[in-house]
Amino acid sequence: MTSIPGQLSPAPRLLLGPGPSDAHPRVLTAMTTPLLGHLDPQFLEIMNETQTMLRAVYQTKNPLTFPVSATGTAGMETCLVNLIEPGDKAVICTMGYFGNRMVDIAGRCSAQVTVKEAPWGQTFDLQVLRETLQTVRPKVLGIVHAETSTGALQDISELGKLCHEFGALLVTDCVTSLGCTPVKLDEWEVDAAFSCSQKGLSCPPGMSPVSFSPRAVDALKARKTKVQSWYLDLTSIMSYWGGDRAYHHTAPITMVYALREGLRLVLEEGLEARFARHVRNHVALKAGLEALGLTYTAAAHCQLPQLNAVRIPEGADDAACRKRLLTEFGIEIGGGLGDFKGKAWRIGLMGQNSRPSCVFQVLAALEVVLLGAGVKVTGGAGVAAAEKAYAA
């Protein structure tokens, strides 16, 4: 006879890694709302409300703006498989782990991929990309706005205009930026963007908000071949999330409830106030981390406020330190990926978790762990530096 596991009761965690972050209590409450059918008139109105708020957070008027019923990587794939046909030229800019993932997906779309690389922790100069666009003349240029693996923020404010000068479509990874730092799709002339629900929007993982410009929709409609993915084919999904609301798939009703509440929270706070909050807490955490002797992996001019990637100090064991943070203090931080595997820690202050209490908790716990690992640390230095930063 099969034994039945006990009722779920995991130990509480403070999720300060690269994601997921803790969901806001109001989001969790919204998820207890009774289910509706995915074509119920009440749910269709909820879909409309979610789309309207998502446009506001993305700062766009794009009609084709909706959450893909899957996690953030599905949003990446949605953008690329719908805009790339076999033989199309694509330029993919990589400055970390997730740019490399875009390269892989573009290749699976049978694109002619030109890879532009920047050192991990650095970002791209616009002039370098101008020369590439002029030489390659691609259909699509893909780039990561906030590179989660390195903690670097790429300036894309003029990149859309540059892409359009050469007839290219700009695709941006906003997984770690949406809801934390400015994302201005219309002003920046971004053609396709994707994000996730579990970081800046303070929801559980499971949804990937995307937005396509009219220019991108025209390219989609002009395709000569079918989109290689049935599930992610926007020519079909458009009829469900827009137009006549024709059945495409059974939407994750509860996750839409969650996203709707997460977006409400963002707009209630106000975009500018939210961005300022993330910067304020980043400044305090950075002061504390540097007081503990930690240095950032991203160059000073492009450090993300919501994802702090720092080098592991000499003498500290990556896995052992993170395990102690988790088991003794209930705090999760992330390890490094790719080139930074075993060399960096990633500390997220995203959405609900961008608040002073999280800053002080992780600094105090990290000090204990570093001291236990034999790293020379001045007692109380991290917390004191953060206090001083908040008081400034």
TrEMBL record:
Aminotransferase class V domain sequence ranges: 37-336
Name by which UniProt lists this protein: Serine--pyruvate aminotransferase / L-alanine:glyoxylate aminotransferase
Q: What is its EC number?
A: 2.6.1.44, 2.6.1.51
The answer to whether the entry has keyword Transferase is yes
The GO terms describing molecular function are:
alanine-glyoxylate transaminase activity; L-serine-pyruvate transaminase activity
Pfam families to which the protein is assigned, alphabetical = Aminotran_5
Q: Which residues are reported to carry the modification N6-(pyridoxal phosphate)lysine?
A: K199
Question: Cofactors per UniProt?
Answer: pyridoxal 5'-phosphate
GO term, biological process aspect, one: glycine biosynthetic process, by transamination of glyoxylate
Q: According to its UniProt record, which protein family does this protein belong to?
A: Belongs to the class-V pyridoxal-phosphate-dependent aminotransferase family.
Q: Which UniProt keywords apply?
A: Aminotransferase, Pyridoxal phosphate, Pyruvate, Transferase
Coiled coil residues, start to end: none
What is the top EC class of this enzyme, as a single word? transferase
Q: Where does substrate bind?
A: R346
